[in-house]
Each structure stands twice: as C-alpha cells, then as structure tokens.
Design brief:
It contains 22 helices and 22 strands. By secondary structure, it is α/β, with parallel strands linked by helices. β2 and β3 form a beta hairpin. α5 crosses α7 and α9 packs parallel to α10. It is globular. The protein starts with 17 loop residues before the first helix and ends in a 10-residue tail after the last helix. The protein binds adenosine-5'-diphosphate and magnesium ion (MG).
Length: 695
C-alpha cells in the first residue's frame, strides 16, 4: 500500500492520472485532503446481511456469500453478454445476473466472496438479483469492511459515485498520520475526535454509529469537520479585522454625557431598548482607536435611520463630516427630509447631493462639502463621483447596503482617511448567516419595533378564493383605502411587465370606480415617479406593481397589499413587500394569494408570515425551508460555500467557531496564530477576504 499525505496532489492516489486531475482541479479538488472533504451525502445501512434463504422478490437486501458457480453466455443476434453467478451463504442460494459486463467473469469465480445489495425480482418462478451493487471480499479481507454503513457520494467530475468511493477508500487506506493543526486546547471544550479519525469516520462510519446522527450529519466526526471549516473562515475574518484595526483613525471622538443629553433631547420619543443597545455599540466603536465597521440590520420602521442620525450628529459635533448614501434618488430625498427634521433643533443643516439636482445647485453643494461647511451630507452615487471631495469625512453611513457593490462602498470610504462605516440593511438575515456573509463586520440588530405600531394582519388565501379576495378589495375601496397589488414575473428572467400590464387591465375593468395605475422596472423614471405621486396624493387608489415597490416607497396612506401568486416569492421578499403598508395609523392588511400550483409545502411556508411579523424570524424560517442560497440579501453578498459544514444543521458550531477564532486572534494577535492554521485560512479564504500574507 503506497502512503499518501493529506496535502499531496491528488495524482498521488493510484488510479488518478493527470487527465482526471485536471478535471478535478476544475472542481476545486487539488489535494488528497480536498478529495476527502467531499463527504457522502447519505449512507446506506449494510450492517446486517440477510440470510439468502429469506430472499424475497421485491424486498431490498444486503447479503454476504460465496460464489458457487458462474456462467457467461453471449446471446446470438444482438450479442448480449449475460453473466449469471450463483451466490450461496449456507442458508440458501440466489442467482445474480449481470448484463454486458462479461469482464466481471475474471473475478467472479467459484469460491470468491461477495457482499451484494439490491432488490431481487421475480423471473419466471424464481427470484433473481439483477445488476446488484457488489463488493468483492478478497482472501484475507474482513467482510466487515463491506458490511457496514455504505457511503454514497455525489458524482465529482470524472469520478462516478462508485469511483469516488474507490478513490476515497484508497486515500484513507494509504493516509499517513499527520499532526492535527488545531491546538488541543482550542478543541478541548467540544470533545471532538482527532482530525484523521474524523475523516475516517465520516467516510467509513463505524457500525455502532447512530443512524439518526448520520442521517443529519450530526455525528461527532461530522461536527468536528464542520467546526474546522467554519473556524478557518472565521479565522480569516478575524485576521482581516485584526489588520484593519491596525489602521488607526486620525482622531478619536469625545462622547460625553453632555453630548448624549443633547442628542437625547432632540428626539421627540424615547429610544427603544434595542435602539439604546445599538447606540451604545456604535458609541463604543466611535471611541475606539480604530475605524468602525458595523452592519446594522433591522426591519423597515425599526428605527435605523434615527440611530444613524445620532451617530452622524456625534461625528459632526466632533468636527467631522458624516455622509449618508442611499441607493435611489427618492430614498435620498426621504432621508434628507427626515434627518433635517430631526437635526434642525441642533442647528445642523442637511446637505442633499444627487445627480438629479440642477447642475448649479450640485456645484454649490460640492463647494460646501469641499470646504467643510456642510457637516451632514445625504446623497446617492453622486457622493462618490470624482468631483465630490470632502474636507474631513469621518463617518460613512450606507443605506440598503446590499444594493451597492463592495467597490462602490470602498470608493466612498476612500474619500476619508479610514472613516467609520455603518452599513444599514432592512433585509434581516439570521445572525449566523450575517456572520459568514459580512463576517468581518460587527453586527448590530434592531429586533424591536417602536411602540404604537399596529401589527399588519396577514392572511393566506388559496387560488380558488380569488373572487373572495376581490370582494375584499372592493370593501377596502369603499373604506377609502389605498391598495398595492403585486404581480410576480411569470417567466423566468422577464421583468414581469406583461403580468403587471394584464393586472392593470384586469383591476381597471373590475373596479371602474377606482383609478388604477401601474409601476414597473422598465418604466421611464419620470413616469414611474408621477404614478407614485398620484398614488401618494390619493388620485390613484390601486397601484399595480412588479417588485419595484420593494424598496423605497413610503406611502403612509396605503393600508392594503395584495400579492398575487405569492408562493413564487421568497418569504423574506414577501416580508419586504408587506413592509410597504402599515406605515401610518390605519390598521393594515396583507393578503397573500397563492397560485394554482401552490402545494401544501408552499402554503405552509406562506403561513409563517401569518404567524410572525418579525423579519428575523421570517428569515430564520426561510433559511430552514429553502437553504442559505435563496435568502434575499445573501446572493449579492457572496455567501461562501462550505463542503463539510451546513449553515442550518451546524449553526451552533458556527457560533462556537467564530467565538474561538476571534478570541484566538484578539488574545494572541496575528503572530500568535499557529502557522498551519494561518496558512490554511489564507489558502482557503485569502482571495475572498482580500487578505495577503504579511511579512
Ligand atoms: P428605519 O430606518 O429602520 O426604517 P426609521 O428610523 O425611519 O426606521 O423610523 C421609522 C419611524 O419610526 C420614523 O417615523 C421614526 O421617527 C419613528 N421612530 C423611530 N424610533 C422610534 C422610537 N423609539 N419611538 C417612536 N418612534 C420611533
Ligand atoms: Mg429606513
């Protein structure tokens, strides 16, 4: 048996040559260790062979026996090869039949021992096992190897599932003991098996392994490997934060009780508990000698803007400029207006800078920003255009951060010297997911709504209840309500234009008493704006939309939203849509109308929204039901993919791994991280995190 090391190239394995290696490289598999990181996606229980005397047609079985006889025939005409082997285990015998695999005859000779698995079928009056799965048990080999948990692999490039099994078996058999790069003290609290032992156990689970734990990848071996994978990512993130914290800001903030009191006096209300917690987290960042890098997540209306305003004012009072960047012109205007309302008593003028402003006004705004006279600035992309220069940019707030690319964020940050950065997202995602997608950002969560909000009543209706829903729309119109109707794109990739236009016609015909208008993504901005304004003014009573209304529409009088074919949307997206109503004082309703294709599972998913209006809970459910890739807000942010860890099943391990990785770096610094771990973290995540080797 030739020995291999875990870091050896994959070609070190017998049977894998340069051609396959090249194909495997395309799948990200270069080393023996990479191959071993491809875990079985399920296991078959082959621990208990059935006596052949009990073999019945139609009943799946595993059997272990010896070949009594073997006969290979070639049919005339079509030239088919049929190999029939009689397997005997002392209790009885069962014919095995293989088609067009004559070459097997050289191994399937009398006396050879076989473990087989399959479902016998009736041929004539006798049971036969056709084309079974088999393992040869060579002389001197223990059948227990083949009688156990059988790992089942996904095909990987040129490696069929069966070849995968063989390649991994070869690798495990030849694997040299290698030192475990994880310091024992780090792993001590978890009682994990060692690294090699864990790798062996996930590929060839010992017979006593718990079936339920195996089915859910919860064996100690699986958990050890998942922890390891999470840990290496979190270590990369911790290193990145460590390096960033070495960038000292040019000056610090003084935040004292006097300033706090002045800020508090500005607000016409008490902060919620969650807001107070977040404000304290931000204050601590502002006082720290390194720049803040914080993500603030909270549902629409949870009071993020208020928190940002306090931070911006603290910056301004400390002699810095603060800039808030919004993804659209409308949002920038709304932010500027509400900040101005809030900050006027503090004597702060809010500067608005967008591309939509007349050129002379833009020029004047830029002059005030460049001279430092404007301390609080709100705008769109125009903020980071080349012609905008800040005198002393100290704080950057980015709203709806997932709509901006990383590059654009970096552009704005480059206008200051390591400014503090606060990114805000109204698309809550579970904390665990935030940790891996925006992992090196510190995360603050506003999970409490300001008091006095009336909950939105959400109801799920079946497709055949559509007429009833339309009656409801008529009653709502009679109550002088304003109504959003959302129709999804039916065809993949289309903008939903057709669906929305049909919707417009249908609603206009059904409700002649109510003016109806349309907004969609292909519309000229001016026309869209005009329709929105007419809706806001009450001239239009029903606004039919594609999902463009997801972000940035604030019509307080809208109190009903009907989402058609709601099952075509993700829960998080529906939750966002629902947030378009309930902004005023009127009791609001959200009707989720299922499509004709919605099955019980889809309906169960929609019901989640009936039960909770907390965006974090909705996202948590969405994660569980649809997996991390589908969650709104993660796709654009580049969710790393994991081979061995599962973001849903191993959430607890992610938290533990993050804690351990950040503690290691905080306590010992970059130089104190064991070399092997440091290298491994950079090798895996260096590119993604833009980490380069130092020194
Ligand atoms: P977000 O930015 O998260 O959508 P905002 O900060 O715009 O939320 O707040 C939404 C509304 O709630 C605003 O009208 C704001 O004045 C109000 N608000 C915010 N915090 C509170 C609070 N603690 N008590 C009462 N009203 C609040
Ligand atoms: Mg907001």
């Amino acid at each position: 048996m030739s020995r291999v090391g875990i870091d050896d190239p994959i070609t070190a394995l017998r049977g894998i040559g340069p051609r396959w290696a090249a194909e495997l490289a395309g799948k990200g598999v270069f080393s023996v260790g990479d191959l071993l990181a491809c875990l079985p996606f399920r296991y078959e229980d082959r621990r208990r062979p059935r006596p052949l005397a009990e073999a019945r047609a139609g009943e799946e079985l595993t059997a272990f026996g010896q070949i009594l006889s073997a006969r290979l025939i070639r049919t005339r005409g079509r030239g088919m090869e049929i190999l029939t082997v009689l397997l005997d285990d002392g209790t009885g015998a069962l014919p095995l039949v293989f088609f067009n695999r004559g070459y097997l005859a050289q191994w399937m000779t009398p006396g050879t021992r076989l473990v087989v698995h399959g479902t016998p079928r009736l041929t004539g009056r006798k049971a036969e096992l056709h084309s079974p799965d088999f393992d040869l048990v060579r002389a001197g080999e223990d059948p227990a190897e083949a009688l156990g948990w059988l790992p089942v692999y996904e095909k990987l490039g040129p490696l069929t599932p069966k070849r995968m099994r063989a390649a991994i078996r070869t690798a495990l058999a030849g694997l040299d003991e290698a030192p475990d790069p994880f310091p024992p003290a780090l792993l001590a609290p978890y009682r994990f098996p060692g690294r090699l032992e864990a790798l062996r156990a996930v590929h060839r689970p010992p017979p006593e392994t718990d079936a339920a734990e195996l089915a859910e990848s919860r064996t100690p071996a699986h958990r050890r490997l998942a922890f390891e994978e999470f840990f290496l990512l979190e270590l990369g993130l911790a290193l990145r934060r460590f390096r960033r914290r070495a960038e000292r800001r040019s000056g610090g903030y003084a935040i004292d009780d006097a300033l706090r009191a002045r800020l508090a006096a500005l607000l016409p209300f008490e902060l919620t508990l969650a807001q107070r917690r977040v404000v304290a987290e931000i204050e601590e960042d502002l006082r720290a000698p390194w720049p803040m890098n914080r993500l603030l997540m909270g549902d629409v209306g949870s009071g993020k803007t208020v928190v940002a305003a306090l931070a911006m004012l603290a910056a301004a009072e400390n002699g810095w400029q603060a800039a808030l960047m919004a993804p659209t012109e409308i949002l920038a205007q709304q932010h500027a207006a509400s900040l101005q309302r809030l900050l006027l008593p503090a004597g702060q003028r809010v500067e608005l800078l967008t591309a939509g402003l007349p050129a002379p006004l833009q020029r004047e705004a830029r002059e005030r920003i460049a001279s430092g006279r404007s301390r609080i600035v709100v705008g769109t992309h125009a903020l980071f255009s080349e012609s905008t220069a800040f005198a002393r940019l100290g704080l950057v707030v980015i709203d709806e951060q997932h709509r901006f690319g990383v590059e654009q964020r970096a552009d704005l940050a480059a206008k200051g010297t390591h400014p503090d950065t606060l990114v805000m997202s109204a698309t809550p995602i579970p904390r665990t997911l935030a940790m891996v997608t925006y992992g090196d950002l510190d995360v603050s969560i506003l999970d409490e709504k300001p008091p006095g909000r009336r909950p939105i009543r959400t109801v799920v209706r079946l497709h055949d209840q559509r007429d009833g829903v339309m009656d409801g729309v008529r009653r709502a119109l009679a109550e002088h309500r304003r109504i959003f109707v959302v129709r999804p794109a039916v065809e993949e990739g289309s903008t939903g234009l057709k669906a929305a236009e049909e919707g417009l016609r249908e609603y206009a015909a059904r409700f002649p008493e109510a003016p109806v208008a349309l907004v969609h993504g292909r519309m000229k901005p001016a026309e869209r704006q005009r329709n929105l304004e007419r809706f806001a003014a009450g001239e239009v009573r029903i606004l039919v939309a594609t999902t463009v209304i997801e972000v940035g529409i604030d019509v307080r009088e809208a109190s009903v939203i009907v989402v058609e074919d709601a099952d075509r949307f993700g829960l998080a997206q529906l939750h966002q849509l629902r947030g378009r109503v309930g902004r005023g004082d009127i009791k609001s309703y959200c009707v989720l109308l299922a499509s004709g294709e919605a099955g019980p599972e889809a309906l169960a998913r929609l019901k989640v929204l009936e039960e909770t209006d907390d965006g974090f809970q909705v996202a948590e459910q969405d994660l569980r039901m649809r997996g991390p890739g589908e969650l709104a807000g993660t796709a654009q942010s580049g969710l790393p993919s994991f081979r061995m860890a599962d973001l849903v099943r191993h959430q607890d391990l992610l938290l533990a791994a993050r804690e351990a990785a950040f503690r290691l770096v905080d306590e010992r610094g970059e130089a104190g991280v064991p070399r092997a771990l440091h290298e491994e973290a950079l090798r895996r995540h260096g590119d993604r995190l833009r980490l380069a080797e130092v020194g």
